[in-house]
Amino acid sequence: KVNSEIQTDIITLTRYLTETQHALGSTATGDFTLLCHALQFSFKSIAYYIRRATLINLVGLAGSENKTGDEQKKLDVIGNEIFVNSMKSSGKVKVLVSEEEEEALVFQGAGKYAVVCDPIDGSSNLDAGVSVGTIFGIFRLDDDAEGKAEDVLLPGTELVAAGFTMYGASANLVLTMKGGSVNGFTLDNALGEFILTHPNMRMPKSRAIYSVNEGNSRYWDEACKDYFNTIKEKGEKPYSARYIGSMVADAYRTLCYGGIFAYPADKKSPKGKLRILYECAPMAMVMEQGNPPGVLFQKSSTSLHILVMMN
Ligand code: AHM
Ligand code: MG
Fold first, then answer.
1. Boundaries of each Fructose-1-6-bisphosphatase class I N-terminal domain copy (predicted)?
2. Distance between CA atoms of 92 and 85, rounded to whole angstroms?
């Protein structure tokens, strides 16, 4: 027997999806599994291009704007194309909403799922090599859904799965399915496989970190100012500040270490900056399903901000 530390019975994302499908028995058609295979291919491709961006002239602006008025980076455009093509070719997606697309994309005749996504979230960080990520949420459409933009005007509680991939020192995929746990996979670049490295992620209870763009504090309302002053000035010791400016990276750290992440609505963005459908709702689902009992989680569907609070 070879005495080795080498793991030979690893759980890849592919294996995890297959086993999850089998556990559901004959009711599962395999469509969701195939959709997730397409998702994982897009994450691998986007990770690849982000890592090579400086070498192949993919840094900087594309010279266009998206529908929310943000200037698009070249990688925003490439990341979106990779994602759209992958969802379209999966044959399982009827409606796709992307931050980088003017309108919802409808793939006629295809699939029963709707996917919402921000292909590269935090793209202002791209050229500095700081972590960014892809956020995604999946809705199961009614069997008679025609396939139109209105089909995805659903509350976040209707998501059947959601998650994100953070492209940092490694590519980390976090996935949760309705009623299930939160699982973290790390891309092994050599194998080209996402490996289950963080099963059943639970947000730890006590880590005094706050994560918010405090440069906006002059635009906050009094309640918000008071809240952040309190966590700095009251209690035994102040919270530590950590703010990356990519929600995926700030949220991933919050999931791993605990703490508070917020992008409050303010006078500049009275409805909040983060977008409810493809940023807040999927992230809220991950945070909610990754929370140990007894921890307060607040999200607001009206003011479009997300606030995760830990005791
Ligand atoms: P983006 O989707 O255009 O990248 O914008 C969303 C990002 C989030 O990742 C992050 O939390 C926030 O914008 C940072 O905004 P700010 O620079 O105003 O702090
Ligand atoms: Mg975004």
1. 11-199
2. 12
The single residue listed with the structure tokens 């496989």 is 193
Residues lying with their CB under 5 A of ligand 2, a single-atom ion: 118, 121
Q: At what angle do helices 13-23 and 31-52 cross, to 10 degrees?
A: 160
Displacement of CA 299 from its chain's centroid (Å): 16
Mean pLDDT of the chain: 89
Give CA–CA dist 184/174, Å, rounded. 4
Residue-wise over 268-300: b if at least 16 C-beta within 10 A, else e? Answer: eeeebbbbbbbbbbbbbbbbbbbbeeebeeebe
Q: What is the pLDDT of residues 212-254, one digit of tens each?
A: 999 999 999 999 999 999 988 887 888 899 999 999 999 999 9
What is the model's pLDDT at position 181? 94
Give just the sign of the alpha carbon dihedral 92, 95, 99, 103: positive
Measure 251 CA to ligand 1 centroid, in angstroms: 12
- Tokens standing for 245? 């400016």
Sheet holding 113-121, edge to edge: 105-106, 93-98, 113-121, 132-140, 161-167, 171-177, 182-188, 193-198
Q: Whose CA is nearest to atom 6 of ligand 1?
A: 122
Measured from the Cβ of residue 167, the count of other Cβ atoms closer than 10 Å reads 27
CA-nearest residue, atom 7 of ligand 1: 122
pLDDT higher than 80, residue 44: yes
